[in-house]
Amino acid sequence: MNKNKAGFSLAEVLFLILIVGISVTILMPIFTQVKESSGVSDISRDCILTDKGDTSKKTCIGVIDSIRAGQKSKYNTLLYFVDKGEPQSKYATGVLYEACVQGAGLACDYFLDKCANGSCGNFRSLISQDYHPTTTKGDSYKNRLVQGVTYLKERIERYCKKNMEEVVAEILKTCKKKGKDSLACHIDEYKCSSDDVNFIIDRCNEGSDMYCKLGYEKEYNRTCKQIKNVYDSPKNGKYRLTYGINKGQHYEAYCVMNDDLDIDTGNTGGWTLALKADGNSSIFQYKSHYWENTNDFQRNEVNLDQTEHKSLAFTNVPFDQITLRLVTETTAKTCKKYKSCSSTAGVKCKLNKKVTGKNCAMTTTIRFSLPKDNSLPDASTYPEAYNSLLSLFSGGFYSIADDRKFWLNVVPGSKLDKVHYSIGINAMTDNIDEAECDLAAVRIGVAAAGKKNDNKECKDKWIYDPKTGIFTVHENTKKDGACACAFNNIMSFTGIGGFSNETDLTAGNYYREKDIRSFGYIFVR
Fold first, then answer.
1. How far is the C-alpha of 426 from the C-alpha of 446, rounded, in Å?
2. What are the residue ranges in the chain where pLDDT is below 50?
3. Cβ atoms within 10 A of the Cβ of 9, count?
4. pLDDT value of position 420
5. Distance (Å, rounded) from C-alpha 327 to C-alpha 285?
6. From the centroid of its chain, how far is CA 423?
7. Which of 114, 307, 345, 474 has an alpha carbon 20 to 30 Å from 328's alpha carbon atom?
8. Among the listed residues 438, 428, 429, 426, the one whose alpha carbon sits nearest the alpha carbon of residue 394
């Protein structure tokens, strides 16, 4: 037996273990750094494999915090599990989703990139979140959430500038579906929706100031005609039209899109309703301030019923065509006499009659065009006189359709003196050569009066009370002492505005005035 054989004593073994332990402790951060630099993170692995992506657990919270701080190893490890298959893929995607919500740019970019490549499922969910931006900073979950949403908004705007088709499409789709409070609706609309005309108009119609402004700048929705020209299959009804110094102020107007108001068969549409007025009312008399100011009247009555209304379209819509529609209640017997309203003076017209028993509602639709000013550099530019109805009616007399027979057929039962009448915009009988006929005034249509009678005792003693409005031709005579000043062959038919009176004077000359009331609509295009 060899008693000199060498070996380790217990003390030596214990010392060796101590040295190895110290070495491992010293080298562990180095090993960890090497492992981390290779893209492997134990904490991310534990978050997925042990805690199953539960973002309320300490490991997953640590992963999210690290990704928010820009540590790519935690992020890369999650990407590894995303591609690993279920259920690890589901867990890892959930952690990335939460990291984006809490402001982790790496995680947000992941979902943006996925959507840009045609896979927008989680991205759609992200941009559906309610958007409540704040400048508050802190570490609370609520503040992280807000910071994340704000970050995502900023990051999406960068992608929108690249006009990435899939991302843009999802933003528009989500905004339209989720509404104005969703993150998607607060993306930079100038970059993300510049090519989606329908979407811009729809969002403006829903009340978005941003999209109304964009529609104004692109000249999509200043008039019903513009909407008709750019929108896919527009329907008749209410639309928001834009105007104003701020290039995005808007108001509701009624647009006739799918027909041409009974005049043509071209089905062109694009008419803007500017005014509705009742012949039984004095609201729109000739001297009413509504004809020459920017005020609207009963702005919510945006429809085609018989409730008076003046739209802001009266002030803000340029045009070169006017359509006037008169609805006149009369008898079936009178209605049968009227079969045509053709004109030789460049005015289009159509009669529609609805007979119920002994009553008849006759609708007369009249259209005329105003010439463009070809003297201006741009031949399509309208003269200042009709850049709007306001500017037109604030101007002087404008002659239209001097066709006596035509106007006699406009309203059933009307009569018209063969000489003493004036037809046009702001028509007055002082537009007639005979100064003695300075009696009547209408905003659009016929102003007419008969001659003074030859009763010398009544000469220059007549007293008149103009009754005015659209298609209002009505003059009232009064006795002066024992003499009645009367006028022969007075035409009196009332459209918008006007007063009722039927007179049978036996003193002096005999005549009968006819006061026929209509409800009128003015459309422009």
1. 9
2. 1, 3, 27, 29-38, 135, 431-438, 450-513
3. 8
4. 62
5. 18
6. 36
7. 345
8. 426
Q: What pLDDT score was predicted for residue 293?
A: 95
pLDDT score at 132: 63
At 35, is the secondary structure helix, strand, or coil? Answer: helix
Size (the chain), residues = 525
Per-residue pLDDT at 462: 29
Give the pair of three-digit tokens for residue 291.
């004809």
Res 230: pLDDT: 93
Beta bridge partners of 235: none
**Per-residue pLDDT at 171:** 83
- Which residues, in sequence order, are CB contacts of 428 under 8 Å at separation 6+? 397, 422, 438, 440, 441, 442, 447
pLDDT at residue number 161: 67
Q: How far apart are CA 222 and CA 243, in angstroms?
A: 6
Instruction: State the SS3 of 148-184.
Output: HHHHHHHHHHHHHHCCCHHHHHHHHHHHHHHCCCEHH
Instruction: Look at residues 520, 522, 478, 470 and name the one whose alpha carbon lies nearest to residue 498.
Output: 470
Structure-token pair, residue 417: 């003196």
- Non-local CB neighbours of 200 within 8 Å, separated by 6+ positions: 189, 193, 211, 214, 215, 218, 220, 221
230: amino acid identity, one letter: V
Phi/psi of residue 355, nearest 5 degrees: -100, 130
Identify the CA nearest to 522 among candidates 274, 200, 214: 274
pLDDT 10s digits, 120-168: 888 888 888 877 655 455 555 555 555 556 667 777 777 776 667 788 7
